[in-house]
Write a structure and sequence with these properties.
By secondary structure, the chain is mainly α. It folds into 2 domains: 86 residues, RNA polymerase sigma factor, region 2, helix turn helix motif (Rna Polymerase Sigma Factor, Chain: A), CATH 1.10.1740; 74 residues, Winged helix-like DNA-binding domain superfamily/Winged helix DNA-binding domain (Arc Repressor Mutant, subunit A, Orthogonal Bundle). It has 10 helices and no strands. Helix 6 crosses helix 9. The longest helix has 20 residues.
Length: 181
Amino acid sequence: MEQREKQLIRRAQGGDAWAFEQLVAPHHGGLLALACDVLGDESEAQDACQEALIAAYRSLPRFRLQSEFFTWLYRIGVNQALKFRRSRGRRLVREGESEVTNRAERSPDKAVLDAELSEHIGRAEKALSPQEHMAFALCHKRGYKLVEAALMMECSEGSLKSYLFRARRKMQAALQPYLET
């Protein structure tokens, strides 16, 4: 952990809101993206992200500088997103990446196929357990290393690898018709 980050943490622990803002600002986009992955809805993800930041602010006096700040913050974000998911009875839904592409550049046939694939991917992700989905999202969507993802999920690397193996197997089975073409 950098010395500047330690100083900001200590100041924020003392009630300095500006220092807290400086600590969390670089991580806000990642927290929001992670919440979107878990909840599948940007509006809910923004609410969950806001709740995570409030929870982090309240918990900061108990942060002991024994782990990386971003790992601690993301763990709070994961917990809040899962809490939102449970409280709303939502199933995990992933927005298809095809929705992000420029629609003007796609042919109508490609747009239909992309929408169909996105729907199948969403259904495949719904079949994953919360742990499998979180492992899949952290490692494959967000690009975290196994050790980082395991810390955020508060599990061993072995457990994380097991979640990833099962998630990949389920996704591959569900998307088999697309893999054959």
